[in-house]
Design brief:
The complex is a heterodimer. By secondary structure, chain A is an alpha/beta fold. Chain A is built from 16 helices and 14 strands. In chain A, the strands form 4 sheets. In chain A, strands 3-4-14-9-10-13 form a 6-stranded mixed sheet, sandwiched between helices. Chain A has a 4-stranded parallel sheet with strand order 7-6-5-8, with helices on both faces. A two-stranded antiparallel sheet of chain A has the order 1-2. Chain B has an 8-stranded parallel beta barrel, surrounded by 8 helices. The chains are: A alpha/beta, B alpha/beta.
Chain lengths: 393, 254
């Protein structure tokens, strides 16, 4: 079974490029060039240099001793939270800004939900001196004020998405419309492993540095490259894609994908796409998505602003359908509790997205000698407001 | 012969109007279609509303959102259209995004279109390649003409491919834009119109996006078989009333 994209841009039945003709020249140019550009020695050199000197990679693979003791297994945390800008998002924006430069683009657009991808995009645009426009739902702008301020300080223009539900999916629609209106000079930096082919594959490749590092780091610490489990939270699925990438075809490595159940999978307020979603088309790709029986895309819910996307990357839809990955759903309450537990056992305040991945240890038992690597995709600074309200701190 | 093909053979410039089904009110669909035909419109595009219309500007987006709130669904639309061929003769095209059609079932959708008398489909996010490989024979079984878009950035090779797959007309998007985002045509637009006109394609072209009044309609139809008005008509419906459709059409035709 192949879990990577095929030559037509599909992961099994998922993926493809369902885009209006207006986007075809841009997406086609990217499709034809992305692999060649990424293989250029100059590109690799600059990408790796920036990941090292600017992002601060490799990110540590940290053996969480007290957490491991509590759950009687070996838990390692891949510390993406220690990256510059506080999450894994920067791995992709560094890659894509270098790609944009090589395609001769001078204007960068992006969508953002909680603002993490917006900040990571504004950061690399400042670094390269490129114009940056970030689309963000009007509602998200109101509830993520610090990240809006960060983007502005970094020189980006933040444009409110006023259509539809005024959140992430609508910000993505607006970014796509901007790209239609500006087909020549603009590159769209999509923040997750979603969108028309080749985006899911390109974003996955840029994020795959996560699993590449896990392999040699685990070899150093455990004497073996492959853990028994890799675990990551999934919204669109970029940190998960990067965490799984080099283990997809290693049958002895089990994959766990953690979705946000919100108030409960069947509560009507959830973002558990693999359970609630049906095959359909969103933002240019065929995947599992939450929709009405009539094919209208519905609004998901999660306490975590990074997980409330109505779809899931096509690679993950394929992993779900084939059973290669085990999907788990974690509620708001379970995630918040796990987040606080990490603070108290390990002195690390995790992003609420990452807390979902940590919450599986309450639900599932691992053997004492099993090695479980969890992607700690981001730090919790951005979520302080939510933590304060939730725990009445 | 399909009504679209017959209409394209008429020796005149064609005026096609787009409206969103279920807007301004859920049950306006049939009245709008009948009034447009009575007012002398040559062809109608019935918009099947979608929650996330990527290729549309604010006017059509807002009308889609409202139509969905009003209760428009694929099934409701087909019910409204079930007797439409008793009163309307001009070609009718459904324009909608692919996901609602996929959920209905592509074949079931095409079959239903044939039953109620729909002549063609415009599905902006169904690329020509996917259509060609997966759906062409289904559309043809039910006598439906699928219409593809081209833009100023579409390469000559791709235009020729689209021309070879098409059997009605080619929808020429006037400039790089979403719907309803420009007013008036400049040299850049007309150069592109001329380039396409000189390609001697087998399918006639109809220009859309940016046609809003008599002037832009006349400009566009200098180079093409016809023109499509969407956002300007939706705006007219929201500013005035469904009862005044003939005034809108009259002003375009002058």
């Amino acid at each position: 079974m192949n879990y990577n994209v095929n030559e037509k841009g599909y992961y099994g039945v998922f993926g493809g490029a369902f885009i209006p003709e207006m986007l075809y020249p841009n997406v086609e140019e990217l499709r034809q060039k992305y692999l060649d550009v990424m293989a250029e020695p100059d590109f690799k050199k600059e990408f790796n240099q920036l990941l090292k000197d600017y992002v601060g990679r490799p990110s540590p693979l940290y053996f969480a001793k007290r957490l491991s003791k509590k759950y009687n297994t070996k838990i390692y945390l891949k510390r993406e939270d220690l990256n510059h800008t506080g999450a894994h998002k920067i791995n992709n924006t560094i890659g894509q800004i270098l790609m944009a430069q090589r395609l001769g683009k001078t204007r960068i657009i992006a969508e953002t939900g909680a603002g993490q991808h917006g900040v990571a995009t504004a950061t690399v645009c400042a670094l390269m001196g490129l114009e940056c426009i970030v689309y963000m739902g009007e509602i998200d702008i109101a509830r993520q004020a610090p990240n809006v301020a960060r983007m502005k300080m970094l020189g980006a223009k933040v444009v409110p998405a006023l259509s539809g539900s005024r959140t992430l999916k609508d910000a993505t629609n607006e970014a796509i419309r901007d790209w239609i209106n500006n087909p020549i000079n603009t590159h769209y930096i999509i923040g997750s492993a979603i969108g028309p082919h080749p985006y899911p594959d390109m974003v996955t490749r840029f994020q795959s540095v996560i699993s590449e590092e896990i392999k040699w780091q685990l070899k150093e610490q455990e004497g073996r490259e492959n853990p028994d489990y890799v675990v990551a939270c999934i919204g669109g699925g970029s940190n998960a894609a990067g965490t799984y990438y080099h283990f997809l075809h290693e049958p002895d490595v089990k994959i766990i994908a953690v979705e946000a159940a919100g108030l409960g999978v069947n509560s009507g307020e959830s973002a558990a796409t693999s359970i609630l979603g049906k095959e359909g088309i969103i933002h240019g790709c065929k995947t599992l998505l939450m929709q009405t029986t009539d094919g209208q895309i519905t609004e998901p819910y999660s306490i975590s602003a990074g997980l409330d996307y109505p779809g899931v990357g096509p690679m993950h839809a394929h992993l779900a359908k084939t059973g290669r990955a085990e999907f788990m759903a974690i509620t708001d309450d379970e995630a918040m509790t796990a987040g606080l537990e990490l603070c108290q056992l390990e002195g690390i305040i995790p992003a609420i997205e990452s807390s979902h991945a940590l919450a599986i240890f309450e639900q599932r038992t691992f053997k004492p000698d099993e090695v479980v690597v969890v992607s700690l995709s981001g730090r919790g600074d951005k979520d302080l407001d939510t933590y304060i309200k939730y725990f009445k701190l | 012969m399909n009504r679209i093909q017959t209409k394209l053979q008429e020796d005149k410039k064609l005026l096609s109007i787009y409206f969103t089904a279920g807007y301004p009110h859920l049950n306006d669909t049939v009245t709008i279609i009948q009034d447009l035909e009575k007012s002398g419109v040559d062809m109608i595009e019935i918009g099947l509303p979608f929650s996330d219309p990527l290729a549309d500007g604010p006017t059509i987006q807002a009308s889609s959102t409202q139509a969905l709130k009003n209760g428009m669904t694929t099934e409701v639309l087909f019910n409204q259209l079930k007797d439409i061929r008793k009163s309307v003769n001009i070609p009718l095209i459904i324009m909608g995004y692919f996901n609602p059609i996929l959920q209905y079932g592509v074949e079931a959708f095409c079959k239903k279109c044939q039953e109620v008398g729909i002549d063609g489909l415009i599905i902006p996010d169904l690329p020509v390649d996917v259509y060609h490989d997966d759906y062409k024979s289904t559309f043809e079984t039910y006598g439906l003409i699928n219409v593809f878009l081209i833009t100023p950035q579409t390469s000559d090779d791709r235009i020729h491919f689209i021309d070879s797959v098409s059997n009605g007309f080619i929808y020429m998007v006037s400039s790089a834009s979403v719907t309803g985002s420009q007013s008036g045509f400049g040299v850049e637009n007309t150069t592109y119109f001329e380039r396409i006109a000189n390609m001697n394609l087998k399918n006639p072209q109809i220009i859309g996006f940016g046609i809003s009044d008599h002037k832009t309609f006349t400009q566009a139809t200098e180079y093409a078989k016809g023109a499509i008005i969407g956002s300007a008509f939706i705006k007219f419906l929201s500013d005035t009333s469904v009862n005044a459709i003939h005034e809108f059409v009259k002003a375009i035709k002058n």
